[in-house]
Amino acid sequence: MSEHKELLVILSSFVAGLVNAIAGGGTLLTFPTLVFAGLDPISANVTNTVALWLGPLFGALGFRKHLERSYLKKLVVPSLLGGLVGAVLLILTPQKTFELIVPFLILFASIILALKSKITKLVERYRLPYPIVFVAVFLSAVYGGYFGAGLGILMLASLSLLGIVNIHAANAIKNLLGFLINLVASVYFAFSGKVYWHYVFVMMGTFALGGYIGALLAQKMDKKKVEAFIILWGFFLSVIFFLRLV
């Protein structure tokens, strides 16, 4: 790994951890950085997941005083199962197929981020029974294990269906569940032969640090500008990856 690439990866992982805790979508920074550093898309996605698995945990620690543990007992199982299913599906996806899917995944993540407030308002109208919430969390976790960008928004929407309307409490649970999803996916990926461990070790600490600092900043700042930047960046990236297919 060249010095310039290493510096770029370190910077992107720190900023991604920061952004993830504040607004979500940090994967849209680190994933393309790894691709442009020379990794194939599946290896970049796998390496990214393994590198960032600690980030949400530090984000949850930043919100720890708002954590409502009574909800966790209901949400841990679908999160772990979904994360594992998503990870298995990713490894089973042929490289060429994933390259075709990537622009759509990035575009989907960007749209989810752009429609975040509308999605939240929509689901806040309903408080659904636990089996439906279980399925919603499970499907969100499958997506998280498979790709992950925009996972936080899907998780927040799922938590709203359960009646969790306090944003800090929701962020605390979202981050902790995101940690569990990344953890189970990372354990599976560790044996896949697709992890570039030197990138993992470079990114892991800075991503976790960014996640913790971001969680503290999220409670004190307006995150609309951060969200707007990530949304525009996501749409830009989707165009770039579409052009790579031409």
Automatic annotation (TrEMBL):
Keywords: Cell membrane, Membrane, Transmembrane, Transmembrane helix, Transport
Annotated protein name in UniProt: Probable membrane transporter protein
Transmembrane intervals: 7-30, 42-63, 75-92, 98-116, 128-146, 176-191, 197-217, 229-245
The UniProt record lists the keyword Transcription: no
Family: Belongs to the 4-toluene sulfonate uptake permease (TSUP) (TC 2.A.102) family.
Membrane topology: Multi-pass membrane protein
Lineage: Bacteria, Pseudomonadati, Aquificota, Aquificia, Aquificales
Pfam annotation, one family: TauE
GO cellular component labels: plasma membrane
Localisation per UniProt entry: Cell membrane
Superkingdom per UniProt: Bacteria
PANTHER family in alphabetical order: MEMBRANE TRANSPORTER PROTEIN YFCA-RELATED, TRANSMEMBRANE PROTEIN YFCA
